[in-house]
Specification:
globular, mainly alpha
Length: 242
C-alpha cells in the first residue's frame, strides 16, 4: 500500500470492490434461478464464479505487493496489462449464447443502477486529489466526467424502465458512459511515468500500481465497461419501443 494514501480511502474502495463482487454473484444466481437451473447446479456455478473472481483479485493484489507494477521503465506501463484478461472475458461473454440467455433474465434496471458506484469512485479520487496523490485531471474537476453517468443512472433507470422514456435514452446514456470511461482510461494511461506520459499538470499517476487501487484496472474499471456493453446488448434484444 502507498503510505501517502489515507487509509480510509483504501477501506472505502475495498468495500466497494466487494460490493461489486456481491452484485455479480447475486446477478448470476438470480439469472440462473429465472432459467430454472437446479439449486445444486446453481450453487456450484456461483461458488466457482466466486472463487474465480477472488483468485483474480488475489493475483493482482499479490503482484502489486511485490512491486511488479512500479517498474515504469517498461512501456506501456505494466499495470495497463491488467485490463487484458477481463476485457477478453467480456468479449467472449458478449458472443456467448448461454450467457445471453442469462443476461436476458436480469432486470434492465440492475445494469443501469449499478453504475452509481462511479459517484463513490469519483469522490474517492477527489479526496486523493486533495491529498496531492493524483492530478486534478483524473477527477470530476478535470477531464473525468464519470460522476455524471453515476448521478444520472437512477434517473435513467426510473424514467426508461417505467415507460416514461423510451429505451433509446438508456442506449444513448450507455454509449456516453462508455465514452466517458474510455476517456478516463486514456487520461490515466497518459498520466503515468515514462515516455508515453503526455500530462504533467500534477502528481505522476502511480496510484494504480498499489493495493487496493490496483483493483481499478484489474476489476472495477472492466466491470463498468462490461455493464454498459451488457446493458446495450440487453436493451437491443428486448422488445421495447424505441
Amino acid at each position: 500500500m502507498n503510505p501517502d494514501i489515507p487509509v480510509y480511502y483504501s477501506i472505502i474502495f475495498i468495500l466497494l470492490v466487494f460490493a461489486v463482487l456481491f452484485f455479480i454473484v447475486r446477478g448470476v444466481n438470480f439469472g440462473l434461478f429465472r432459467l430454472d437451473v437446479l439449486d445444486v447446479k446453481r450453487q456450484k456455478i456461483t461458488i466457482r464464479l466466486s472463487l474465480s473472481l477472488f483468485t483474480w483479485l488475489i493475483i493482482s493484489e499479490m503482484l502489486a505487493f511485490t512491486g511488479f507494477f512500479k517498474d515504469y521503465s517498461v512501456q506501456p506501463p505494466l499495470v495497463v496489462f491488467l485490463y487484458l484478461p477481463p476485457i477478453a472475458l467480456i468479449i467472449y461473454l458478449l458472443f456467448n449464447r448461454k450467457f445471453e440467455k442469462l443476461l436476458m433474465q436480469l432486470p434492465p434496471s440492475w445494469l443501469v443502477n449499478v453504475q452509481s458506484i462511479r459517484v463513490i469512485i469519483e469522490l474517492i479520487f477527489w479526496g486523493l486529489f486533495l491529498n496531492n496523490i493524483i492530478s486534478k485531471r483524473l477527477t470530476f474537476l478535470g477531464s473525468n466526467y464519470d460522476i455524471l453517468i453515476g448521478l444520472l443512472a437512477p434517473l435513467i433507470s426510473y424514467y426508461c424502465f417505467n415507460r416514461k422514456l423510451t429505451k433509446y435514452y438508456a442506449i444513448i446514456w450507455n454509449m456516453l458512459g462508455l465514452l466517458f470511461h474510455l476517456t478516463f482510461i486514456t487520461t490515466l494511461f497518459y498520466s503515468m511515468p515514462g515516455s508515453t506520459r503526455l500530462f504533467f499538470d500534477g502528481p505522476t499517476n502511480t496510484l494504480f500500481g498499489y493495493f487496493p487501487f490496483v483493483w481499478m484496472p484489474a476489476f472495477t474499471s472492466p466491470f463498468i465497461i462490461a455493464m454498459h456493453l451488457f446493458s446495450m446488448k440487453q436493451l437491443l434484444k428486448t422488445k421495447m419501443p424505441l
